[in-house]
Each structure stands twice: as structure tokens, then as C-alpha cells.
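Marked as duplicate of an earlier ticket. Keeping the data here for the record.
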Amino acid sequence: MQARNVRSFTTASADAVIVGMYPGRRPAAGTDAILKAIGRWAHSALEKAGFDGDAGQTATLPNPTGSGPAQVVIVGLGSDLDLEGLRAAAGAGKRAAPKARVVATTLHRVDLDGASGAVLEGIALADYVFETYKSKAEARAALEIELIGGPKDLPTIAENAAAVVSMVCFARDLVNEPPKTQAPAALAERVGSVAARAGIAYEIWSGDELVDHGMTGLLAVGGGSERVPAMMRLEYTPRRAKAHLVLIGKGIVFDSGGLNIKSSEFMATMKSDMAGAAAVAAAVVAIARLGVKTKVTAYLALAENLLGGGAQRPSDVITYRNGTTVEVGNTDAEGRLVMADALCLASETECDLIVDVATLTGATKVALGPKIAGIYARDDDLAHRVQHAADSAGERAWTLPMPADYRKWNESSVADVKNTFGIRYGGGIGAALFLEEFVKDKPWVHIDIAGPAYVEDTEHYILKGGTGYGVRTLVELASSMAG
């Protein structure tokens, strides 16, 4: 993504220009002049098209003047515009001009702090495609965005936006990749090559190294696959760091359910079960590129959950690094088993906050739907801090409870705890309470992204498939900790 300022509509070299309107077809800043430039007929054309300015609406008009962009895309801004609504409007506008490689806009001129960055993000994220395996994919020129009458500090704003956008798209690529090409070790090496270029140190444990480090959950979950599991550790250490954040990402590269095999309906999108690891890896790189003064240590727990001669069985017992024993009640509740390994490591670290990110439970998705992540924490202040980061980043999340009296449903008759919840309802809470067993007294928050990590429908800047959810929230959180 490249961004630059231009003076006016007529000086823009764009293929398309995106402008905004509020309900009642009230033009946003900069819109009226552009519509006058292309002709008085524009407003009647919008009326005939049924365009009123409601959020999500778009209308495309030709530019017959022979100067400036060939088409004008008008997007509805709605009546209660915030930065996320602006980001979505910018994305919708770009999707209405899918072939445009140079896009001009005046959307950044609305009266919102941070508008320029949000507009750049929305347009660039909407331009994302995953065509690695398309036999007839067309080569595309780099996207250029022109801000008509943009701010003087645009170079800095654009650089920061590009750092975040590129890593959200990297996370999307990782999630969209076919599982056959993405063994745990291969995923770790791919992340490592990107991390190294950002000055991030890393190490990868597999095979006997997992045994040596007591990564019993990974070994149990990955035992049914010929592709061995791995634990990846990333370390970003800026000078004069103000805080230390530990991130953990669930990285099940494919989840068949193991011996408790999933139905075909629920297995179809299970290449996305590593979206937590993708988000964490991408966020660490973005944080490093932005130069955030928060030290970040990250653990990616990577495994493939298949059926095989070495697969774990229901009723097996796993003894973890910290001595906790777990009865396996269901091999399809494997995410919490690998996350427990990483949480053991994190709990041994002196840090200000541990945050884990995982596509962990269908129960949280049932509770909140496909667009909202669940935040779980035993400390209300920490939950609020992460909630605020998500809100500021424009990623929807909601805090759910962790009642202590629910712990009894995680009890096992043969081990300390069981990886299945003892009642039908509240499974998201049960999973969070299970994870809590492995963090001791450390400050910790769990984010369940089972809903928004992978979507079936395209909407504004979010395209069908992997969304990269969580990257922006974690970047915002690390930035706030450097405050």
C-alpha cells in the first residue's frame, strides 16, 4: 500500500474516487464539490438508485468530465459514524471498485480523530485477495491511495497503517493456506522468516525438544499425525521497554477432532483452527515494525489433531510441566490441551500481562455469534483493559464471566481436572476455567475468537475466509501498555 496527498479531484490520478454521504444524502466534507464537478444529474441519479446514505450503502457514478477519476463511488456513512464505521465505509467503497489500483478519497475529512489511518486501513484491507492456488489469477499492481486534501503527517500515518494492514493480511494468508502445505514446523518456519526480518528473535522446539521441555499436551494432541508438533517462542525486546506482554496463540493446523471425530459439517473449515497463532505471530511483527516500547514474548502451540496409531484416547491422563494432571474426556477439546503447555511456560515468566488467543469453543460462538470474540478474565480491570483495546482497534468483543462455582464441572475422578465441561451449557466458561489452572497467580486474559476468526460472507473490508481478527487488538493493547 502506498499513500500520498493530492490537492483536488481534478489532480487525482486515480481509477476511482470514494466519497461519503450521511442519511438524507447529506454530503460529507469534500463530497459536494466532487459531485458538482461531475454534473448536477448526480443527485437525481442517487435518488433513482435508492441511495440515501445509510451505513453500508454504495452507489457508483461515471465521471463524464474527462478529468479526474473515471468513476465516483459514494458510500453511506450512517447517522452515528465512528472510526470503525468509517473503516467499514472505506472498505465498502473499495469493494465497489474492485479493479481500481489507484484510489482517491475524501473520507478522511470527516470530523474524527484518527480518520486518515482508519480510511487507509479500510481501503487496503478490502483490497486483500487470496489467489495463491488460482490457476488464472491476474497479476495486480500495488495499491495506491490518494487522500484529497490529506494531513501533513500522512507519511507517518501511512507507514503505521501499512505495518498493521500488512500483518493482518499475513495472518489471513496463514489461515487461508490449505492444511496440506502447512505442517506445524512449516508454519513455524514461515513465521520465523517474517519475524527475523523485523528483528525478532525466535526458537522452535520439536521432537525430543518437546519432551525435554515437558510439552506433554502438544505431544498428546499431535500424536496421531505424521507431522510432528512444535512450540515456537518469539521475543521482541525494544530498548527502554515500558512493560512486558506475553502472548499465546493456539495453532492447530488442522483439527479432525481426533478419535472423537468431527462431522463433515464442522470439519470443513478446520484449517482455521490455527487463527489464534496466526494473529499472535502477526501482531508481534506489527508491534516490532511500529517500534512499540512494550517487550513481547509469544508462544505458538502448533499441532495437527488427526486419527492415527499414536493418537490420544478418551480417558488418557496427561501430566503437565507444572505437575497438573488432566484426564482427556474428549479428543476434540484439544485446543486447551496445547494451550496449557504454553501457559505453563508463560506463568514462569516475569511479566505484566498474559493474553492467550484461540479459536477455542463453539460455545462462545453460540453465545456471541460469528462477529464477536469472547473475553474471559478473573480480574475485571484486566478484562476492561483488553476490552478497551478491542474497542479502540475496531474489533468487536464482549467480556463474559468466570464464576468460581462453575469450576466443579471441570473436576475429574482420576486426575486434577478434565478437558471437558461436565454440563451441556456454558462450555466457553468451562474452557476458560480450565486454562486458568495453568497460569497460577499471573495477570491473565483469555480471548476466544472462534466466531470472528473465519467468516463465510464478505462484508466491507472483511472478506470470506480468514479475517486476521485479533491482530489490531493486540497491537493496540501493546501500544497502550507502553503508554
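See parent ticket for discussion. The mean pLDDT is 97.
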